[in-house]
Design a protein that fits this description.
This protein has 255 residues and is α/β, with parallel strands linked by helices. The chain has helices at 20-27, 42-52, 80-97, 112-128, 152-162, 173-180, 183-190, 215-225, 246-254, and strands at residues 3-7, 31-33, 58-61, 101-104, 133-136, 167-172, 194-199, 230-233. An eight-stranded parallel beta sheet has the order 2-1-8-7-6-5-4-3. The longest helix has 18 residues, at 80-97. It is globular.
Length: 255
């Protein structure tokens, strides 16, 4: 049975970050994800996780580049040493906080050299942390122009070439809709590779049910495939987060 997580980077932003854990718990979420938790001491985040009893589903790697550069560079030639150094920092956070998945961001790059860099970095990371689940996620080129990983077939090829048991696919309904226009069909094509699901509607990446995506059909396809991992709410609320959670009540009733 899938578990529903709140992305605390995007939800409950009307509250200070450390107060969002309690808000997610009170709203009925089963867990949380935090894209970049590195601004706060791990001890403070761990305290909130323990107080609410919410597990941490996912964090992103690498930490943000505060100099104004791109957030990811796993596919960027020449930055391999930096990738390894920052990945080790992310791994310390993940282990301290009990994060189930680490999403490794490819960054902006193109061409065969970027492909080989991505494969080498992913292979190294998978071997460096064999007990840690790692994911990669295609991001659509409209929102993230220049991002190396922008296609689901490409992601499947990368996962196959790396061939690591702890590397899988992160499936985002919003990006899937923008990339392919067929969320459910895309899911069926790659379901065996998926470790983590994120949901947001299109256009605008707002609440599920607010746009064009057939979430009833998509959720039925998840159930049909026997998916029992996290479904994380990663969207921009149309107003206060709590006012737009009708979709969560519907999914909870479906549990």
């Amino acid at each position: 049975m899938p578990k529903i997580a709140a992305n605390l980077t995007m939800l409950f932003t009307e509250l200070p970050f450390l107060e969002r854990f309690d808000a997610a718990s009170e709203a009925g979420f089963d867990g949380v994800e935090v894209l970049f938790p590195y601004d706060d001491p791990a001890a403070d985040i761990l305290r909130e996780l323990h107080a609410t009893g919410l597990p941490l589903a996912l964090i992103n790697a690498p930490p943000p580049n505060y100099a104004g550069g791109p957030l990811g560079y796993a596919a960027v030639p020449g930055l391999e040493d930096r990738f390894r150094r920052d990945f080790r920092r992310v791994l310390r956070y993940a282990r301290r906080l009990g994060a189930q998945h680490i999403h490794i961001m490819a960054g902006e790059a193109e061409g065969p050299e970027a492909q080989q860099t991505f494969l080498r970095n992913l292979g190294w990371a998978a071997a460096e942390a064999p007990g840690q689940s790692l994911t990669i996620e295609p991001l659509n080129p409209q929102d993230k122009p220049g991002y190396f990983l922008n296609d689901f077939a490409q992601a499947a090829e990368v996962i196959g070439e790396v061939g690591a048991a702890n590397l899988g696919l992160q499936f985002d309904s919003y990006h899937a809709h923008v990339i392919t226009g067929d969320v459910t069909g895309t899911w069926r094509d790659c379901a065996p590779l998926v470790r983590h699901v994120q949901i947001g509607d299109a256009p605008g990446r707002h609440e599920p049910g607010s746009g064009e995506i057939d979430f009833a059909g998509f959720l039925a396809a998840l159930a049909e495939a026997g998916y029992d991992g996290w479904i994380s709410a990663e969207y921009h609320p149309g107003g206060r987060t709590g006012d737009g959670l009708g979709w969560l009540a519907g999914m909870s009733a479906g549990h």
